[in-house]
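Sample intake sheet
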Amino acid sequence: MAVEGRERGLRAPAWLEELVRTGRQPVPWRDVVRFAVAVPAPLAVALLARAGGGPALDDEAVLGAGVLATVGTLNASLAPQSGPLRERLRRAVAAAGFGTVGLLAGQYATGGGWTAVALFAVLSVVAAQLSAIGAATSNGALQLLLLAALASGLTTPLPVAAEVGWFAAGGAWAVLAVAVQARTEREDPDRAAVAAVFARIADLLAASGTPGAEAARRALTGALNEGYDRVIRSRARTAGRTRELSELAGVLNAAAPLVEGAVAATRAGAPAEPDDVTAVRTLAAALARDQPLPADRPPARETGPPAARAVRHGLRLVWDVVGDPERRAGAAVPRSRPDRRTRLRELADRTLASPDTRAFAVRLTLCMTAAELARQHLPLERPYWVPLTVALVLKPDFGSVFARAVQRGAGTLVGVVMGSALLALLATVPDGWVLLALAATAAVLPWARNANFGLFSVFQTPVIILLLDLAQPGGPVVGARLVDTLVGCAIVLVLGYLLWPQTWRAPLDEALRDATLALEAFVEAAFTGDDADIRRARRRSYRALTELQTQLQRRLAEPPPISSRAAAWWPVIVQLERTSDAVTEAVIAMRSGEPAPDLAQVSVLRRAIRQLEDDVRAHRPPDDAEILAEGVLAPVAREVDTARRLVRESAPDRRPG
């Protein structure tokens, strides 16, 4: 017992164990190959040109062009993660585009002085606002700051236009590599995981009444777990808002009635209707290939066994979510597209009007200003490494400053030692070995990024060191690089963390409660108020949902277990957004001539939403009673039922923290 007590006493604190914990992540082999080939390719071309060029070629200029193109390739290669091709290309293009702007802006900070300080202050404010818009702009905001910091201290014999051009060319090469890789992938893994749920539902229906029903049920359970885990895991790794993942989460949420109907049909032992099995497989195929559903929507079923009616009811609900042809054709209640003024208002809600975004802009500006002053006045060997470190640690996505500062600082320190050792080993060998070392370290980045932020820093730092040493040979020794890194981390910890107690905890609980209360008020106004009341209530509801998404984004950017707990609540948040959209559609339907709902049913629905707020606050499961509603209120009631079910599944052990 004494030995066990000593062992427990010697264990590291739980928070420290979480900071260094590396989750088991599969190796993304296609990404590994892309990084190993694409990242060193521009440098390889430059080295070949230098080796085979004549006296007209300036060796230093050629090498500088290769380094800048490689930096552009690295930045754009790191941007895309799993997802559809359009989302990956959007992130890569944003990284290349904002990085190019940062590289150009950083040229005006090379001379120092108050002009450089003001420049970094302005860039920090812009980066903070961009980070609140979406996933692509959040990553682009980071590249904006990184390249501005790099350009403030990196000098090459190339003119400014050539530097920007070669960097942009490297980014374009990375975008092309992403597109080529996508052509080798049959399907998006997130979408495939959701499609697999419906394939397993079809298998379960087909196996109903046969000895294979139990195995099919277990396979469906595994597919559901994998689907939610896959989508939630992808959301937790992605800073900013991603429409694709929100849509997939909404599809999984809507699948619950169909799953329940399929399980009930199997328990009854009755063979399923072949039309239902075919329709579910059609859903799975449409999801896997991201294609529209055919026009032959399954009709409603009013007769037959209860389990068969439940299957058809759940099937029609999912069909509506995945893509009802009647809705797309405008035959049913249309989903109105917000006009330009509304979209600008929503954008302002996420940026200028958001207290969190404004506070983060001040914090980021303060840290980057201090880093720029340190760059100008401290006797450092590579002073631009200080603002570069600050930008990496205080990455503009509202994440955990303390966790990232510790992980980034520790990872960078190890990476500096590794990179310096590589430079010493490569000093006396041919250039080909430099390319091999660059390819090897770059190839690890896709896996390390998913495993642990600190581990990612360990391998990212040597890549940067190798490139910068090629552009400016004879760089600082290990000790000097460590000092630069520690200065940057200290600025973030003091000015970006300790001075801001309100940032130590993201109030996700409070934002969830506010969103449910605003939704309840929206329901009241939608069915009992006039047009002005409806507009005000809708505005408050969507503003509360925006604030909720911001708080979620901050939690998702933190290390586990905080991010994993927050991600577990993400389907609930998606469902609240869907419910608010359903209320909007009900209002449009009433304006088109549909009868208003019974006020008693509206009261029941409002009471259920208020009860949902109590359940979220108390972390208790709601009751299982289904909300009964008719007419335009029925779709809203179904969305609220789904939200209550999701709270019921999340409340016992998945708290926002």
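Comment: The two ends are 33 Å apart (CA to CA). Residues 1-16, 325-336, 652-657 have pLDDT under 50 and may be disordered.
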